[in-house]
């Protein structure tokens, strides 16, 4: 299992993985997700963005800016990480199109990390 923690005064980024490849701080796939999170936060004052493994090929995606929450489940058919993932959404709060579409870059990057490292947790918290 590999763990990457990047922390400064305003944010803590944590990635846990169970794959054969162990993630490194300077991995370009991790940097891409972090950059997408930075861009997302420029528009939405996120306090939490979390991706967590829930079972074989099943992941929860959650983000919030305090009062508003986004919950999504993403899964891979037969736990085959090479397959196209399916998604469900449980979103009761309003999100502007210009806000939630920024999640696509983060989500796509997280899918890449799932495939590359078999991540069990990606968590980014802002102070």
Provide structural commentary:
It contains three helices and seven strands; from the N terminus they run E-E-H-E-E-E-E-H-H-E. It has helices at 28-43, 97-100, 103-117; strands spanning 2-7, 11-17, 48-55, 58-64, 69-75, 86-90, 119-126. The radius of gyration is 14 Å and the shape is globular. It has 127 residues and is an alpha+beta fold. The chain starts with a strand and ends with a strand. A seven-stranded antiparallel β-sheet has the order 1-2-7-3-4-5-6, with helices on one face. A hairpin with a 2-residue loop joins strand 3 (48-55) and strand 4 (58-64). It is 28% helix and 38% strand. It has one domain (2-126).
Features:
127 residues, alpha+beta, 7-stranded antiparallel beta sheet, 3 helices, 7 strands, 38% strand
Mean of residue pLDDT values: 93
Q: What is the oligomeric state here?
A: single chain
Number of helices: 3
Round the Cα radius of gyration to an integer and report it. 14 Å
Based on DSSP secondary structure assignment, what is the total number of beta strands?
7
Which stretches of 5+ consecutive residues score pLDDT under 50? none
**Beta-strand level of the residues, as a percent range?**
35-45%
Give the overall shape, derived from the CA principal axes. globular
Give the proportion of residues in helices.
25-40%
Global structural class: alpha+beta
Strands in their spatial order, largest beta sheet? 1-2-7-3-4-5-6
Helix/strand order: EEHEEEEHHE
Q: Strand count, sense and closure of the main sheet?
A: 7 strands, antiparallel
The first-to-last residue Cα distance is 27 Å
What is the number of independent domains? 1
